[in-house]
Design brief:
Elements: H1 4-14, H2 19-26, H3 30-37, H4 48-61, H5 65-74, E1 89-92, E2 95-100, H6 114-122, H7 131-135, H8 152-156, E3 166-172, E4 176-182, E5 185-192, E6 197-202, E7 205-210, E8 216-220, E9 223-224, E10 235-241
Antiparallel strand pairs: 1-2, 3-6, 3-8, 4-5, 4-7, 7-10, 8-9
Helix pairs in contact: 2-4, 4-5
Length: about 260
């Protein structure tokens, strides 16, 4: 009997797509993709991360995402209507040996939480500022309007109270899956490797979801921030506003 992972591998090879291409397209670690194709989901992060990885794989290969998830539900790997995988054994190519699925603690894919985006985009009193698209980037940001664009160093040295809005600058120290919403708009999404950097700006609010809370260091408006959590921890709904910014700074960073 063909397993779900074997079926995915056959579909990929039939389309002439290499595993490296899938990894480059999805920014998912190749070892997780190999785990999918070899039905070793016990080597992958648990919960909704598995569903996110399967959907990203399907999209990169050109398969229907819902149909792929249904394959795993029929095989008893995913529970219908639930985010967590079923803890049960699955067949492996017709052999009697079974593999037991377990939830690992590493970081991987966070699924876009549409309800959060809809809430922040439509909340009362919010006005859309087209300039936000130009001021939010993955590592390069335009200087605030109130600061003459003389040198890039001038932007980096601005004190929090003098800088308009919010600015988070991130340096990744470990492989980390991250989502950042700027004023309700998804500005940063994906798996980042150690050594990567990113920068996002917002007028009023930053919302952060992390699959590896200890895998990064960051600054807020140029000031060093406190750790969001330990390495490997999943932390969601980190909400940063002008009112809460100080609470995320390291001691002495608010001055």
């Amino acid at each position: 009997m063909t397993t779900p992972g074997q079926e995915l591998k056959q579909d990929r090879e039939a389309r002439g797509i290499s595993l490296k291409t899938v990894a480059d397209t999805t920014r998912i670690s190749r070892r997780y993709l190999e785990a999918v194709e070899s039905d070793r989901l016990d080597l992958m992060p648990g919960g909704f991360f598995i569903k996110g990885i399967l959907k990203a794989y399907a999209g990169a290969v050109g398969l229907d995402e819902d149909a792929v998830l249904e394959r795993y539900r029929r095989a008893g790997v995913l529970a219908s209507g639930a985010q967590d995988p079923v803890r049960k054994q699955i067949p492996d190519g017709g052999r009697s040996k079974k593999r037991t699925l377990s939830i690992a603690g590493a970081a991987a894919v966070l699924i876009v939480i549409a309800s959060f985006a809809a809430y922040f985009l439509n909340r009362p009193g919010r006005t859309t500022t087209p300039q936000a698209d130009d001021r939010t980037s993955f590592g390069v940001a335009a200087p605030p309007e109130s600061i003459p664009p003389t040198t890039t160093d001038a932007v980096a040295d601005v004190a929090p109270e003098a800088e308009k809005g919010l600015r988070i600058k991130i340096s990744f120290t470990e492989e980390t899956w991250i989502q950042v919403y700027a004023d309700g708009r998804l500005a940063l999404d994906g798996l980042r490797a150690a050594g990567d950097t990113a920068e996002v700006r917002a007028d009023a609010e930053l919302l952060v979801h992390l699959g590896n809370a200890g895998g990064l260091a960051y600054t807020l408006n140029g000031k060093p921030g406190k750790p969001f959590g330990r390495s490997g921890a999943v932390v969601k709904n980190i909400r940063i506003t002008a009112g809460t910014l100080v609470s995320y700074l390291r001691e002495g960073g608010a001055g």
